[in-house]
Structure formats: structure tokens, C-alpha cells
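ok trying again, last paste got cut off:
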Amino acid sequence: MQVSNTFWEEHTVLTEKFHEVLKHEGVVTIVSWGTEEPHVVNSWNSYLVVTSDGRILIPAYGFRKTEKNVSQNHRVKMALGSKDVLGYKDYQGTGFVVEGTAEYLSIGAEYDMMKEKFSFLTRVLEITVTSAKQML
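nice, full thing came through this time. structure:
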């Protein structure tokens, strides 16, 4: 089923441009913080799976400090981009800063789907997006 651009922009904060970025490889940086200083982990654009309701699922193998932080503070920030997608004013490259709340999944249908795609995962980091701002 083809969904119009207007539908996505009205029903989710993840725009068509965001989805276009995910079609190209790039580094994803996830920032979490508990009671101590912020902690940073990285993943890849190709590892992100966006659900039909706009949540982002990320396979987690390590991410132990992130998990500890999320148990204390569910808020996370994420930055991602690609030099292969045109940004504002047709400049080469664009990126996003995403904010949301996170939790870890270790059972259920979405965990099983992710495990089938990414056999290395031990858990799934689920981010419920509250904002996604295009930066470039």
C-alpha cells in the first residue's frame, strides 16, 4: 500500500525525508543519561526499523550502559544522517536529531521480527519518538 507524503507528515513526526535517510547508510548516535553524565552509543541507519505507528526499533547486543540509563531515565536523543540525501536548499547531505522515550524489549512479536532480521541482537531498543528535527 502506497501512503502519501501528506499522510506521514500529518500522522507522524518522521517525515518522508527521514525515511529517505534510512535508505542510505550512515552512523546513528544514541545519547542516554541516568544519574551520571550522558552516555553515547552508535548503530547504523540500516539497523533502524520504523513501525507503522512511528516507533523506532534498534537491535541491541551491547548497549548495557544505555539500558541502565533507560531504567533510570526513559528520555533519549538520537542523531543520524546521510551525505547521499539532499538537505535544505538542495545542499548535499542531511541529518536529524530525534528525541523520545526508550525501553527495551526482550519478548513479543516485535522482538521476534527483529531477531529474525538481526540474529546478533539480545534485546531491542524501542524509541517512541516525540520530536524529529531536520538539521541540514
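cool. The domain at 5-134 is CATH 2.30.110.10 (Pnp Oxidase; Chain A). The longest strand covers residues 92-105.
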